[in-house]
User: Which sequence fits this backbone?
């Protein structure tokens, strides 16, 4: 294909202009529809959007031979108000902190039954992945169990009312990191970089994605399903409720997160970085932060100066990601070299 | 209603000398589990070590052994494997069982027939690796059937019964055996033959399964509109074990040619005015002491409680109908209250028409404290002479307490008792 047509301002290629085989899985009228309409997610929910693409792609990759294991959380609550269920895949919900282990158990049973044609996908929010489920996740990684685990990261405990998680970014206001004088939201710290933790386990495949580039998300799920063993996909999913953003801004915010450098998109195989998606139109973090009321305190009293010091610290984080992953095309490092450096 | 019977004790005429854990592992292997996730904790380790070796050597194929990252992980792996339709087994002890607690309730709530051996061990702090039954009794309300083994033969024989019961009723089962006392004891044990187990335990046919051809959602949220009814039905489902367990035990006993396990079993109850009720390995010592006391003309007997959950109310009422008092020997207790088994027994007996029996609790054998024949002899004599306190600790070392400067329990100061008690004891011993 020689000519690409892009929608103005979005970089998303128009499906109808592509040949059939290159169109998005969601454009296929025969798609699995693993997570059907009628669920009770909020308007503009990034998580159910991401989950639908992830599940349908995995279903296509496995020829419909898929079992999903779900942690407790928004995705579970909104999809299964029994007797209704929005799932059209075999789906098991056990507890909040054990989805990776339950998924491993399903995989072990299928292996013992000789049904390795059926693949297993575990999924959880950031709380169920980076906090309460991290031990089970690490165990699943270390044993290299044949599970694709997907974290839908909306950066706080949204289901219980927006409390801070280990994935909450610095300065974000949550119900447990309120903004008071001298305490501007969540602390500035190392954070918990679970994609990097996953890479440290040297599992076959690790990738990050967002709901802004759904073709990229599909491609990464497809890629993940080519491997056998433990795989990890970390998907940034804006949450209008918790982020204090308009429900129409979910896709835009996910895109700004990557274009500012705050959420780098990359893939890694067996612990080595294999690709990073360059930023096309770099934006200052300011542009990403401003539409979210969880950062409103950074822009309050702008006539008196606001908090440019804190915004600068967040910008430093974005700049560091851009350097680390070579996110500006001009500074794209040789990837082999990069992964060598990461061993030092 | 059957009359209280006297069963003769097994002398162990068949079998070979083998460690209890090893015999249990071999029995479990003959039950053909398909997935065994486990996490090490003493004194359960020998069981899962033996199973991992059997799996490694391909003797259990097709079976997956999984080294879990924690007991919470191990039980969660069991949940996934069982929900995917495989016969699933694990073993644990003590803190490990507590670490599983959330997943235990979940497995029961999801109706998953997991079978687990609990090598009974004390709970910390203070950390203690030795035997009592605080661990499994703390999970009384988890929705698991609980069976207690008096010896290693029973520990083995209860496992095929547990699998069959679990899979028929869709209720998980714990087989509890005293840690070290049984798990590490080498004695003559007859491990059931493969043909016997195969004849008794059919291949697992799951009631619900995660099947891509027939996708179903498992793990519903249930609100106030139906939660009570879900629990009501769970109660009924577990109570079915009161009928089914003895039937299955009878059938199994015929196959192996040994006396059947019961929900509860009477020992020398004929004319017994004082009856000792206990669970687990203490029954051996207790029955020896009862034999001696009978020779001395004391009207004493014993009841072994094998099935603690569901609680066999009718069976116990029948067994204790002729008794004047029951001394419940408990290897665990509830601080600030009393025994754990006794209140349930009292409730069972007062149900009209009341069985007029006086019940007392003797807490014994905590944290590996041996329950000696000598201590039991004194207890039996005191009890037969109606001198048993309502609540007491067997062999409480008052000398140790006074050497450490404790007159009474209320003398304890705030903070951690264990370190202070040991430190004071040490200082006083040095200054002597």
Assistant:
């Amino acid at each position: 294909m020689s000519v690409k047509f892009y929608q103005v301002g979005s970089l998303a290629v128009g499906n109808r202009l592509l040949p059939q085989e290159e169109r998005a899985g969601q454009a296929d009228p025969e798609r699995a529809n693993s997570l059907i309409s009628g669920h009770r997610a909020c308007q503009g929910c990034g998580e159910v959007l991401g989950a639908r693409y992830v599940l349908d792609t995995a279903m296509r990759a496995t020829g419909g031979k898929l079992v999903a294991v779900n942690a407790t959380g928004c995705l579970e609550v909104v999809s299964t108000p029994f007797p209704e269920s929005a799932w059209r895949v075999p789906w098991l919900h056990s507890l909040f902190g054990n989805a990776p282990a339950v998924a491993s158990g399903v995989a072990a049973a299928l292996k013992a039954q000789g049904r390795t044609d059926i693949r297993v996908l575990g999924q959880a929010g950031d709380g169920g992945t980076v906090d309460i489920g991290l031990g089970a996740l690490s165990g699943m990684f270390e044993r290299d169990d044949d599970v694709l685990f997907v974290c839908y990261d909306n950066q706080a405990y949204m289901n219980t009312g927006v409390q801070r998680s280990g994935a909450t970014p610095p300065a974000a206001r949550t119900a447990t990191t309120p903004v008071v004088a001298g305490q501007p939201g969540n602390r500035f710290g190392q954070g918990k970089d679970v994609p990097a933790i996953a890479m440290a386990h040297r599992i076959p495949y690790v990738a990050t994605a967002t709901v802004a580039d759904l073709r990229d998300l599909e491609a990464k799920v497809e890629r993940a399903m080519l491997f056998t063993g433990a795989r990890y996909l970390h998907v940034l999913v804006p949450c209008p409720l918790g982020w204090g953003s308009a429900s129409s801004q979910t896709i835009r915010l996910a895109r700004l997160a990557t274009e500012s450098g705050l959420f780098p998109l990359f893939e890694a195989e067996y612990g080595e970085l294999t690709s990073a998606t360059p930023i096309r139109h770099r934006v200052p973090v300011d542009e990403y932060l401003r539409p979210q009321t969880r950062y409103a305190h950074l822009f309050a009293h702008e006539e008196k100066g606001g908090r440019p010091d804190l915004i600068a610290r967040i910008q430093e984080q974005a700049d560091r990601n851009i350097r680390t992953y070579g996110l500006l095309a001009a500074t794209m490092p040789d990837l082999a070299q990069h992964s060598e450096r990461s061993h030092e | 209603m059957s009359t209280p019977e006297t069963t003769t004790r097994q002398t162990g005429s068949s079998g070979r000398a083998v460690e209890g854990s090893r015999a249990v592992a071999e029995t479990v292997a003959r039950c053909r589990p398909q997935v065994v996730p486990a996490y090490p904790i003493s004194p359960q380790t020998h069981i899962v070590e033996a199973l991992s070796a059997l799996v490694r050597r391909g003797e259990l194929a097709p079976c997956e052994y999984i080294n879990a990252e924690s007991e919470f992980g191990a039980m969660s792996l069991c949940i996934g494997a069982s929900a995917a339709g495989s016969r699933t087994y694990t073993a644990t002890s003590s803190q490990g069982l507590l670490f599983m607690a959330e997943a235990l309730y979940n497995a029961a709530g999801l109706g998953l027939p997991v079978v687990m051996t609990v090598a009974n061990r004390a709970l910390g702090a203070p950390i203690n690796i030795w035997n009592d039954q605080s661990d499994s009794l703390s999970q009384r309300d988890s929705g698991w059937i609980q069976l207690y083994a008096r010896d290693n033969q029973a520990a083995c024989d209860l496992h095929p019964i547990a699998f069959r019961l679990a899979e028929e009723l869709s209720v998980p089962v714990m087989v509890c055996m005293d840690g070290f006392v049984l798990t590490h004891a080498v004695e003559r044990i007859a491990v059931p033959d493969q043909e016997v187990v195969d004849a008794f335990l059919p291949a697992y046919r799951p009631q619900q399964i995660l099947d891509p051809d027939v996708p179903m959602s498992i793990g519903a949220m249930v609100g106030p509109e139906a939660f009570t009814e879900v629990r009501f039905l769970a109660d009924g489902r577990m109570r079915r074990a009161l009928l089914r367990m003895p039937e299955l035990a009878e059938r199994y006993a015929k196959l192996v040619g040994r006396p059947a396990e019961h929900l509860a079993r009477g020992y020398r109850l004929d004319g017994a005015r004082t009856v000792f009720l206990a669970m687990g390995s203490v029954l051996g010592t207790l029955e020896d002491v009862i034999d001696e006391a009978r020779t001395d003309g004391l009207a004493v007997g014993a009841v072994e409680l094998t099935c603690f959950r569901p609680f066999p109310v009718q069976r116990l009422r029948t067994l204790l109908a002729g008794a004047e008092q029951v001394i419940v020997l408990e290897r665990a207790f509830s601080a600030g209250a009393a025994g754990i088994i006794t209140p349930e027994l009292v409730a069972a007996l007062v149900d009209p028409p009341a069985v007029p029996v006086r019940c007392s609790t003797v807490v014994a054998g905590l944290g590996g404290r041996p329950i000696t024949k000598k201590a039991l002899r004194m207890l039996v004599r005191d009890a037969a002479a109606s001198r048993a306190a309502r609540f007491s600790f067997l062999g409480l070392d008052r000398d140790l307490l006074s050497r450490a400067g404790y007159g009474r329990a209320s003398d304890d100061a705030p903070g951690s008792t264990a370190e202070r008690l040991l430190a004071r004891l040490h200082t006083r011993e040095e200054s002597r």
About this structure: Residues 1-30 of chain A form one domain. The first strand of chain A starts at residue 66 and ends at 70. Residues 308-325 of chain A form the longest helix (18 residues).
